[in-house]
Amino acid sequence: MSNALPIIIGITGASGSVLAKKTIDTLLESSTPTIVCASSAARIVWQEEMDESFGAAIERWSDSNLFQYHPSQQINAPIASGSFPTRGMAIVPCSMATLAAIAHGMADNLIRRSADVCIKERRPLLLMPRETPLSAIHLENMAKLANLGVTIMPPDPPFYFKLSSVDQIVEYFAYRISVALGVSETLPDHLQYRGPEDI
Ligand SMILES: Cc1cc2nc3c(=O)[nH]c(=O)nc-3n(C[C@H](O)[C@H](O)[C@H](O)COP(=O)(O)O)c2cc1C
């Protein structure tokens, strides 16, 4: 796959804004064109959880000419159309509301529409859902999407790595997303399981 095609990152109003921040940082550090779309709920949760404001993060990422941003109300952005080529999309973190909308074909904002486009165009789509506990509704929506080929990657830590900080767990998931979308071939050495000596 060409490195020149962008990856879309959707940010929704589930807890875990730091996962979005690290994923975007990692993609830009690897010179991957990155189109970010955030919902208004994502911005509210970001404000609760993060030290760097969302506006400051957008400004920092905008220093790179590989970065573009659209609010989720901007339904006429290029990524709303299947004719605009991308390498795929990750929604990090993914709320149960957005997951339900995607599972039911409700393309009523730019994040949901872009995910709908990925499914119809058979492009990679990864959702990082965050909720606990999960109801049967959540699980049925996830199963429906998994059966369509969508990758459902909850941010469940690999406890066998004995990662000692939230930062390390977040780094692990940013790389897992990169690998799942084909941006990186493998996880960095320190995040690869090497068998019993690591546990
Ligand atoms: C502080 C905060 C934390 C939230 N955490 C979650 C969560 O972890 N998972 C979830 O599905 N919704 C969570 N929500 C609720 C969503 O933000 C809400 O359902 C919203 O409508 C999602 O909209 P969006 O999917 O368009 O971003 C949270 C809301 C707030 C204010």
CATH secondary-structure class = Alpha Beta
> Overall pLDDT, averaged?
95
Estimated helix fraction: 25-40%
The total strand number stands at 6
- Give the H and E element order: EHEHHEEHHEHEH
User: What is the CATH T-level topology?
Assistant: Rossmann fold
Biggest sheet descriptor:
6 strands, parallel
C-alpha end-to-end distance: 35 Å
Question: How much of the polypeptide forms β-strand, as a percent range?
Answer: 5-15%
Bound molecules: flavin mononucleotide
Structural class: alpha/beta
Instruction: Report the radius of gyration as a whole number of Å.
Output: 16 Å
Give the overall silhouette: globular
Q: Which architecture per CATH?
A: 3-Layer(aba) Sandwich
CATH homologous superfamily title: Flavin prenyltransferase-like
Number of domains: 1
Short recap of the structure:
The chain has 199 residues and is an alpha/beta fold. It has one domain (7-198): 3-Layer(aba) Sandwich (Rossmann fold), CATH 3.40.50.1950.
Strand-helix topology:
Elements (H helix, E strand, L loop, with lengths): L6 E5 L5 H13 L4 E5 L1 H10 L4 H8 L5 E5 L16 E7 L1 H8 L6 H11 L4 E5 L6 H12 L3 E2 L13 H15 L19
Helix pairs in contact: 1-7, 4-6
Bound molecules: flavin mononucleotide (FMN).
Description:
- The protein is of the alpha/beta class and about 200 residues long.
- The protein has a single domain, classed as Rossmann fold (3-Layer(aba) Sandwich), CATH 3.40.50.
- It has seven helices and six strands; from the N terminus they run βαβααββααβαβα.
- Strands 3-2-1-4-5-6 form a six-stranded parallel beta sheet, with helices on both faces.
- Helix 1 links the parallel strand 1 and strand 2.
- The termini are far apart.
- The model has no long low-confidence stretch (mean pLDDT about 95).
- The structure holds flavin mononucleotide.
- The site of flavin mononucleotide has 16 residues, from helix 2 and helix 4.
